[in-house]
Amino acid sequence: MFRQLEEEKVFKDPVHQSIYVQDATIWKLINTPEFQRLRRIRQLGTSYLTFHGAEHSRFSHSLGVYEITRKIISQFERNGYSDWPQQEKLVSLCAALLHDVGHGPFSHSIEQVFDTDHEDWTCEVILGNTGVNRVLREVSADFPDKVASVIRKTYDKPIVISLVSSQMDADRMDYLLRDAYFTGVHYGTFDLERILRVLRPYKDKIVVKESGMHAVEDYLMSRYQMYWQIYFHPVTRSSEIVLRQIFRRARELYAEGYEFGFMLPPLRQLLQGTLSVEGYLQLDEALVQTAFGQWMEEKDELLSDFCRRFLNRVLYKYIPLEQRDETWLNGLRDEWKSIGLHPDYHMEVDTPIDLPYDVYKPGEDSPEKPPILLLDDREGLTEIASKSEIIQSITGLHRGKYFLYYPEDLVRPHASKLSRLTRERLSL
Amino acid sequence: MFRQLEEEKVFKDPVHQSIYVQDATIWKLINTPEFQRLRRIRQLGTSYLTFHGAEHSRFSHSLGVYEITRKIISQFERNGYSDWPQQEKLVSLCAALLHDVGHGPFSHSIEQVFDTDHEDWTCEVILGNTGVNRVLREVSADFPDKVASVIRKTYDKPIVISLVSSQMDADRMDYLLRDAYFTGVHYGTFDLERILRVLRPYKDKIVVKESGMHAVEDYLMSRYQMYWQIYFHPVTRSSEIVLRQIFRRARELYAEGYEFGFMLPPLRQLLQGTLSVEGYLQLDEALVQTAFGQWMEEKDELLSDFCRRFLNRVLYKYIPLEQRDETWLNGLRDEWKSIGLHPDYHMEVDTPIDLPYDVYKPGEDSPEKPPILLLDDREGLTEIASKSEIIQSITGLHRGKYFLYYPEDLVRPHASKLSRLTRERLSL
Amino acid sequence: MFRQLEEEKVFKDPVHQSIYVQDATIWKLINTPEFQRLRRIRQLGTSYLTFHGAEHSRFSHSLGVYEITRKIISQFERNGYSDWPQQEKLVSLCAALLHDVGHGPFSHSIEQVFDTDHEDWTCEVILGNTGVNRVLREVSADFPDKVASVIRKTYDKPIVISLVSSQMDADRMDYLLRDAYFTGVHYGTFDLERILRVLRPYKDKIVVKESGMHAVEDYLMSRYQMYWQIYFHPVTRSSEIVLRQIFRRARELYAEGYEFGFMLPPLRQLLQGTLSVEGYLQLDEALVQTAFGQWMEEKDELLSDFCRRFLNRVLYKYIPLEQRDETWLNGLRDEWKSIGLHPDYHMEVDTPIDLPYDVYKPGEDSPEKPPILLLDDREGLTEIASKSEIIQSITGLHRGKYFLYYPEDLVRPHASKLSRLTRERLSL
Amino acid sequence: MFRQLEEEKVFKDPVHQSIYVQDATIWKLINTPEFQRLRRIRQLGTSYLTFHGAEHSRFSHSLGVYEITRKIISQFERNGYSDWPQQEKLVSLCAALLHDVGHGPFSHSIEQVFDTDHEDWTCEVILGNTGVNRVLREVSADFPDKVASVIRKTYDKPIVISLVSSQMDADRMDYLLRDAYFTGVHYGTFDLERILRVLRPYKDKIVVKESGMHAVEDYLMSRYQMYWQIYFHPVTRSSEIVLRQIFRRARELYAEGYEFGFMLPPLRQLLQGTLSVEGYLQLDEALVQTAFGQWMEEKDELLSDFCRRFLNRVLYKYIPLEQRDETWLNGLRDEWKSIGLHPDYHMEVDTPIDLPYDVYKPGEDSPEKPPILLLDDREGLTEIASKSEIIQSITGLHRGKYFLYYPEDLVRPHASKLSRLTRERLSL
């Protein structure tokens, strides 16, 4: 099943130094149009507007996930652990590589507004009429289904799912290291080599040797820091809010029969909810940003303003709210109207809690996110939080402040018309 | 002239850790649409197709050039060197920051095909009806002219030009470090802190204390290695060739009156040679790549094939030529025609020599590239190559191999129709 | 008071890149015999027997503490904070530099066995007949007293004490970074630059801007990890136990009038409890290790065996104890005797808790270890643990396992004579 | 021959992250007293007096050389190169590990003064009555001889010698990286991973794939920079000169029958030229420095002064000489005498050329230092300098300035008695 390349291919990678490809199937997958397209999708969505180094793509992340998976399996093979089913190597590597192949541009915002799901798209790319599917079918007729079932977490070898998708999987390990590298913070750095050394296949799970507990603490603390310092950064949230207003406004206008000065087929499909795989694959960040650039000229003032804000980085301002003060917020909607603003577009209360990111929650023993288990010679398996107070302490922490986001530049000229409380809270 | 911000602004940067903005003019320049647009222009053009980490933008590089310039001036001020004219700080910082503001998408290819020049565009952005110009005019009516004349190297304080543009200027120092960081190679690393410490203002030049000679050797060797390992990498050259074919073919079709299925105003201006500043500023990489995506559907087969190659990374293959064998190459054009290929598009002989990069050439004492001078208490100034055999050795080295690039996938099926010599040379 | 050197001196340092000396007093202090002697005292005592890279000296650490202090003060001066008393710069820098000048070889072990205290010795070096004292007196007659009182935490400017000695002082910041660098682990790395940026002088304390809370969390987690991974490593503990047996045995023999085959005056003074400053300053690690080498030839078998163990790294083995099982341990002493071993020397129960290191304990508001305070515009000062659950979680954590240490090589040959429980526990 | 350890042993290393020991013989060798003794010998001799971070030992370097050798062999095995004789693995690893086991304290100085050779001592440790010999003999009776013959470059498998000792061997690769890491300069960094990837066994040599040429250039430039910036640093040279005066004076005094206040058997053996292996192994840096400390009290003023200078870092000053001006230097000897100084001890003219370090000299095709060969499919083997002008340029470069070293503190008080030329040259 594993067809050795004549000569190993090596990618230079800033995070892992080198990424080694030894199998022909992997090499062909990387060269499909669908995988190459990930070069035009940023890994961190709008974070580059907060951390200018965060311009790296899902292409480089996907190679990194593949490489970490390869290293884990290679460690298992080197040590000859009998609980690792050796014939599962290729399906594991393919699932690792293709894990994010269904990501679109600024996925989080698009998924929120249009209620799509990148995991579904990943499976469609794997199973549909695509280059990826053709390469996988060369392995065997049912191979695409196998890979897709790993992504969907229904594969009949749970250890493969555990490897590709868990609280300490190759995906998370790569993105923490990579996002730290490209933003330039050091919070995300942990001792990858040490963690790779303490992983063990055990029955149908990947677990951690007990002596590796401090290394896992370190990894989880890195993750905790990255979430609060990078992923939930309020400036990034602001840029996502502006981005969502664009999509929401465009969808609304489309529904109303508005004539867009600029339109392209995949965008139209998106707005009318009829995206095909082909259309989806054309929807990269280049296309979306080009549309925004053209829409800056639209006669709908809301749409053109939001596009201008996004491209020129004129974001919404934010203030922390001690708690959701619904009375004041409801009143604020009326105040907004009174000065000519749209409360549905020009204010948003946000808390990081609804982001698709998560901090480690040990109780959560769902098939989706198996917890991290420590393996001890005497006691067998234990969930890590029960042994580590550090890890307990970051569970359910920081339930997230509320922030109010709004376009200050539009509000300030009308400050005198606002209530005293509002002026105070917004420092006007 | 220097208007201190109330609170210093800090950008997190992977290369310099932090970038400090203390002056209101700099802060406002960063927030202009023209400068923000640099986020949509990659620093290294097509290099990301060879080194996937090289996805960083000219935005981050421009901030880096500003920061290095700020550090050099700060060192001069701290030591109170009388040869440094203190009132030139703001013009120097602005010129450093805006140095690349006229860069377009994939500048090298576009400049070659359309004969434009990013330095001219930089001056147009500084002097034209732009946000940048408005911010600069707030300083004084003639301030935009001053900044532009630094870019054009005609400013009447040569020391400012020497600071912003020389063989060891902030521009080169930042891009070597930054490109090394993002590609993940270490060749470009040199001891920036040490170099900053040995720079001295001396009469109307920036020179190097003699004890810094080895640090300069190290810097020049880094530069040499980066050129040959990164900038002149044949895979990158291949992607630039494919890119040029797109632009050449599109211009040719446009001239012939071809009806494009997809067109946007700035593209049309580009093809007909009538680009305005406004049009140019819309021409970012997002727009160009979107056009390529749409042109994959054009009925002109050459154009659609080149676009597909570029986006899906199906590049031309290359073989090294010991020397330009004109007889064989001329014959090859005919062989190409005989198998239905276009010699003007389907083959290209390339040598890195014509790239806008350069290795250090000490003799070249043009106002464009002042050489690096060592300052010695006894001897005064000496050009560095006369003291360092290392530096002499990398002067004029490696005049560049010739490579032949061609689409192997189109040639191989017709191999049997080609001459024996050709088959041998192309390993068919 | 500050006498600028004609030319700034620069030390190349792996942790801080460069260490800058601008004041003549600092330069002279570095060149005293007492300070140079720190080159012959390892920063981490016996840790090099566990982490071979940990061979760095207190000399380099002391320079690092000085440099961090210099940077903090420089930030205060640059921002013109009025709560920082500018005239305290030199006394602060001297106290930072000389903080550890009284450390002897393997201080922890020697202090435990001989009940001495390196802080007392530091003051004696500062106040006694030494090169250090002479340099300090050049500043003013009472300057040595001032510096010593900072070390003793009785100086009448509490902010200076807060700078030099607190839960987040320059000492701890340097040793975490330095020990991480030289051992090669990355746990100790935190964002020094960011922490330096959020420190503020506030009344008579150094506090942290509230937005710096996550950076402090990161620093404290680094510290927590370093303590458990490096400082309390059981192999290092084992080597300290062996070392203590040497000193204990030598003292016992000396008291009994034993004739040593090798003796030197400072050693004799140590063993008889009459160490003078002059003697103490001769007691470096070279001398102590040389004595051990010679004592390998002593006729007292215990002493020669312990010396051999220490120099050849034949350490005691250890097993974790679930709890102090006094009944078994008492019985073990008898079992030891029955096989010819000395229970006072050949077994030791150890828990890290008694080490002079500490994890952060927020409640502990002693003048010795002022807690870390956050400064908020609205609320004023708050102890950090009350805001951070992370920090709460590492307070009083890990009260430390008990370990039993013993020379397995001496026990194993007699295994059959030991009780079954003992054989089981020791895996014999 | 290879006896797998039950569990792989891992050393944490700052340069290679981890050092893996899988074979029982290697593990036992590391635990011999002779190898542990390398912890008390600094890798860089007196360089720590110039670069305070350079406190690392030959113990850590020896582990590093072993690890690089292990990685090279592992690459050969993984790729199944038939030119690599697989049964030579253990002898190669042992030779790599033990390569420096015969180094004494401050070897360069001791070898110069007493005309000993650390390579001879290495062979004596391997072949003599030592722990190392006993471990090697467990493999087979002739195994110590085999290992020693690799060290002596007479082993009958030249490829093993080429691996352990050549212009680009594991020894050099480790020390460049390690010395750069611990001094904190970055000159010594090169892409180790890439170099390991381009090495090939070819007939009886280790050669380099041609595509690795730039990587080798980079390695040789690092080496060149390290030599001139670190190894030949004039302050380090000064400290070695002071050190040599101690040894020269002590030997002279011993020959004259002087009664030393402090003496130990191995020192006496050294001074009378009768060092046994046992004595040599006791001669570590601790002992030597302890002797210097005691000799500070000797009544011979020269000896006590040199010892004080070395321990307190009161080194000789140096001035560059344009050329060896013998007339002036001869006169200077007389001037020295006239002011009561000893020309044999108080002045020394030095040029780096006589150091046991070397820059790459391609012509030098001795069995000692085989040149670096490039392997090309068409052309076979070529010496690298013939292809690289960079490498040519660093051949024979920098023949080394002359420096005059002398104790300025002893000269300055008598400046008025010196000739005008001397006063000028010494800036008195």
TrEMBL record, chains A, B, C, D:
Q: Which CDD domains match?
A: HDc (cd00077)
GO function term, MF aspect, one: dGTPase activity
In this chain the HD domain maps to 58-176
**GO-annotated biological processes:** dGTP catabolic process
The protein's superkingdom reads Bacteria
Which protein, by its recorded name, is this? Answer: HD domain-containing protein
